[in-house]
Design brief:
It holds the Pfam family Acetyltransf_1. Residues 115-250 form the N-acetyltransferase domain. This is GNAT family N-acetyltransferase. With 250 residues, the protein is of the alpha+beta class. The chain folds into 2 domains: 2-96, Aminopeptidase (3-Layer(aba) Sandwich), CATH 3.40.630.30; 115-241, Gcn5-related N-acetyltransferase (GNAT) (Aminopeptidase, 3-Layer(aba) Sandwich). 33% of the residues lie in helices and 29% in strands. The longest helix has 15 residues, at 200-214. The two termini are 31 Å apart.
Length: 250
Amino acid sequence: MDIIVQRSVVAQLSQRPQSVEVGPFVIGWDPSTDSRYINYATPRPDAVITNTDVARLVAAFREIDRLPRLEYVTTCAPGLERQLLDAGFGVEARHDYLVCSPDSLTMPAVPDGFEIAEPATDEDRAGAVAAQNEAFGGEPTATPADVARIRRTQDNGGVVMYARGPDGSYVGGGQASPPGEGVTEVAGIAVRDAFRRRGIAGALTAGITARMFANGVQGAWLEASGEDSWRVYERVGYAATGKRLYIALG
C-alpha cells in the first residue's frame, strides 16, 4: 500500500495549478497561496536520489519563491531523510496514515439537527473553508482564492463537504483529493470548537469517503495526528497502515 499511496501523492501534486519536475521529485504549487501545506514536493517511489538532486530541488523552490518542503511515505525513499537532514532540513512531523476500503467503511448517523452536504454554491464553499480555518486556529474567513481552490477540487473529481448546524451556520468541513492510482486522500476534516465531540467529524469523514467510493475509488487514506482524530477515523473504518514524513528547510 505504501507505493500506491506515494504514487497518489505524486499524482495529486501533478494536478496543482503549477507543477515542476526536478529529477526524481515533483513540486506541486499554487501561485495564489504560500501555504506550506499546499506547496510542497514529493519523491517518485523507489527513485535513485543523489545529493545533487536535493540541491536542485532546493534551487527550484527558491525560483518559485516557496519554502523547500516535502511530504512522503518513508519506505518509498528510505535514504532521503538523511540526505535532507544533511542539507539543512528539519523534521516537522511524523504521521501515521490510515486506509479505508469500501468493505471496512462504517457510516455513522449524522447528529440530530445537523446537515452534511456537498457545497453547490460559492457561499457554501466559503462557509466550509471559514469553518475549517477557525477549527485549525486561523481566522474564520475564506478568500476568493480559497473558494476557487475548493471549486477546482470538485471540478477535477474530488469531493468537498460541509457541516451546517441547526441555525444554518457552517460548523465544519473536509475534502477528498481527485483520485490518483485508484485512491484518494481525505484531508482537512475540521469542526469548530463549540461543536466538537458530537459525531460531526466522523459523519464528515464517512460521508466524504462514501462519496468517493460511489465515484469508483478503490481506497481512501488519511493521516491521524493525535489520539482524538485517530479514534474518529478508526470508528468509521480506517486502519493504520504506514508512516509519512513532513520535512522542510528553514
